[in-house]
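Q: Sequence in, structure out?
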Amino acid sequence: MATQDAAVAPLFADHSDGIVRGHRGLWSDAWRRMLQNKLAMLGLGALATILVMSLVATQMNVVERHAPHDITTAKQLGPTGDHFFGTDQLGRDTWARTLEGVRISLQIGLGTQLVVLSLGLFFGVLAAFGGKLTDNLVMRFTDIMFSFPDLLFIILLREILNGQGIKFLTGTMVMILAIGMIAWTTIARLVRGQMLSLGERDFVTAARALGATRWRIVTTHMLPNTLGPVIVAVTFGIPTAIFAEAALSFLGLGIPAPAASLGTLVADGNRFVQVNVWNVVFPAGAIAVLMLSFTFIGDGLRDALDPRTRG
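A: Exactly. Output:
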């Protein structure tokens, strides 16, 4: 089999139109192009800063001076030296709660995309290589899932999962599963389309002629070539999941108390916005920064991984 791979390698490099490894390699070339994209690097820098601050907040009193759930008598304060973002209606520190909200929102965004990627790859590969009947069944099922109103179906799945009473399913995990189980259809369609397109390429034909198994062709030659578009789609999917959770939280269907995502903080602050607008401004600003950061990174990845723009 090693001899087969060695024989296929030149065809793989010559006939993939820049999608696969060239003389520099796809990933090293993509990283070089990312470094030249100022908006993408701005997004990476902002995201890295937010991650560091949110992850080390509980370890450094300079970053987080108050516990996010401590109730005090200092209610509805504006930004001060002791409370950087002020306090809410219960006297809880908005800075600490915003950092906690960032952690939870990122967990939901990243966790959702793991579910989306798993389901999307499974159904996409199954549709592409399961035969005509399987392809029709899988794609009709995908169309049915895609036709449901996203928000309504997420609410329905959330209530079903909560109603099962499964102990290990936390509020965050329920939200991840609910959003992920409706958002996988785009990845499945993308993977199926990429697989069908790659199936006609010369390097795949050569691998078949040399006796490579279908599994080896898929895992060794085809899946690596679908990673570029899939990674871009997943990157754009993270802010979409964060925004979906924020919308549900604003409707009162988000993470149960005492945990609070950014959407929950905005919803809570909105009830007292005429008293203290800062409890809405700062969490909403954090959502905006996260979404812009991932959008800039996604745009940069799309440009960096596009074979038509490679030098």
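Residues 214-250 form the longest helix (37 residues).
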